[in-house]
Amino acid sequence: MKQKDEIDFSSxxxxxxxxSDYEHVLLAHGGGGTLSHQLISKLFFSQFDNEFLNEQHDSxxxxxxxxxxxxxxxxxxxxxxxxxxxxxxxxxxxxGNIGELAVNGTVNDLVVAGAKPVYISVxxxxxxxxxxxxxxxxxxxxxxxxxxxxxKIVTGDTKVVDKGKGDKIFINTSGIGVIKEGINISPKRCKxxxxxxxxxxxxxxxxxxxxxxxxxxxxxxxxxxTAPLIDLLDCIEKFGDKIHVMRDPTRGGLAxxxxxxxxxxxxxxLIDEEKISILDxxxxxxxxxxxxxxxIANEGKMIAIVANDxxxxxxxxxxxxxxxxxxxxxxxxxxENSGTVVxxxxxxxxxxxxMISGEQLPxxx
Amino acid sequence: MKQKDEIDFSSxxxxxxxxSDYEHVLLAHGGGGTLSHQLISKLFFSQFDNEFLNEQHDSxxxxxxxxxxxxxxxxxxxxxxxxxxxxxxxxxxxxGNIGELAVNGTVNDLVVAGAKPVYISVxxxxxxxxxxxxxxxxxxxxxxxxxxxxxKIVTGDTKVVDKGKGDKIFINTSGIGVIKEGINISPKRCKxxxxxxxxxxxxxxxxxxxxxxxxxxxxxxxxxxTAPLIDLLDCIEKFGDKIHVMRDPTRGGLAxxxxxxxxxxxxxxLIDEEKISILDxxxxxxxxxxxxxxxIANEGKMIAIVANDxxxxxxxxxxxxxxxxxxxxxxxxxxENSGTVVxxxxxxxxxxxxMISGEQLPxxx
Lengths: 365, 365
Hints:
The structure is a homodimer.
Chain A: H1 34-48, E1 60-63, H2 64-69, E2 78-86, E3 92-93, E4 96-97, H3 98-111, E5 115-127, H4 132-149, E6 152-161, E7 169-179, E8 195-198, H5 204-214, H6 230-237, E9 243-247, H7 253-265, E10 268-272, H8 280-289, E11 303-306, H9 311-319, E12 328-334, E13 341-344, E14 350-352
Parallel strand pairs in A: 5-6, 10-13
Antiparallel strand pairs in A: 2-7, 3-4, 5-7, 8-11, 8-12, 9-11, 10-12, 13-14
């Protein structure tokens, strides 16, 4: 398997803390003294640079006016607020690293609320001994991920824990987005007759992580699908409240996301195995590892559950986008089998796709 | 030393996951499946209960209207946004625990921006094996801390890492607050002639933590000062932009906070040792441990740097509050010694109070 874990450092930026000064993160880098300040200003402020962060206050001060200037009707909009901690292991994996995952993941949590992501916060929990060079790579890829999504990293925090009390680095990102007037996304709005659209093939991310951990080799590389789902949101907005639910099927995969929605909305779902695309190598890896791809995490896919009369139009729009070119209507919401997801298999039978009780893959995000 | 680490469970709430089901947190409690859902709904949703969280969406949806209803002039207000991760060790300490510290700490970061805290997010990173009973105690004290500050916990995330890859529990809290019209807090606004007011005695929190770690015993208990600074904010608002800077002297203590402000604002500071109150037991512990109390963390104190002409009035107001009853004007901002904090000692000499290069106390918050 080809490792695609190199970040494009064509910007040529070399780490502003040279190895001759500090090669590893020390406990003192998190202590609030001179070393903390050096780390924060040289590695973080220099890259995440924006007018809000640069104030160096305990909180970022965000005038609502800045949202108006960004084109929102502030009076009729809503805020979306989300948080996620990232503990993926390994921190560099085929197709990405924990830094871009942390930015994209929180961006996507806002997107599936129907919100345009605007501001994010970053909280690092670093294990003593992390290579400063690795931290630098992570920072550069966070900067790039934030740029792609148009979000600003406006506030942050850095803690260092003693060696053996963490695992290289954990990253929390919280985010604020703005939901335009007319958008009303909620799992409770899912109704019988709605169509379920999936933006692309599943299980790449989880299998990329597992392959890296297990040292599996494949003919072609299996790489994480980590990506910001902004482009798919742009298509959504024109359909207003015809879009009932959106969800990014991360931990627990497609099956868990659908089960959660079915349970909250008290509806059934019937999905079609034939419409769910999975890479052959991923299928193979799942067989080797004894995993069901329906439960494997994705980091760049979206589920939309929408009114029947706009499903084809949305599908067409998504397919015009790079991120949605393999989108399919994979099933529909039913009034029978309330709280349950049923799958029509490729051999024509039906099976219940349950919520898993434990977890298949620890620490995939 | 009397341990004051009991939380008042007079509510009589017993843990909704009985020991007979699960005594410890398992990896599967973070896997996104049935066990995750049980943990989240039984422990978190049941206690943090509010209309935003109960939507169970990836993001909390917060109508700006809800801020209007809370009495803010939304058009003229600003948002404050902050994040902090808490990695304190031990997680239960004299006077508090990591849960209330995480709520109070983020509340205070908003308060020192001049913002009334409104919403917070919670991200748990739990080490496999944590006692569920301990998690429950933490949750109850977070609920109580949120109630005291009038904030709602509106969104959250739970991750579980393998045993030996974390340290019981780390908690990230991010927060959103609203800054009323006319308030303009920024370290850059600090000017020569301004007075420096400190709300009470220093170093209790850091020494309480260190005493617990080292097993030190004292005649009287040294307990953490963890508290939300909301009451002190209420006095601030009427003075509008005469309040130039506020800061809560946490990691790095009073000395680091003042140095940071002096550096950003490019001013000097002259403080008076006699005016800085320290408990005798804390002084004693500092001598035993070889620590300087000026650098020890506080979790319930505020520094305000204000225009000379309102300093006495603010001092009077603070002293009327429980949290500020020992407030003192400890010094003033000077044009000489730019970027430097100088202290007039009790024996009449002057010494430079530097930024420390490393850290004295790891993981005190």
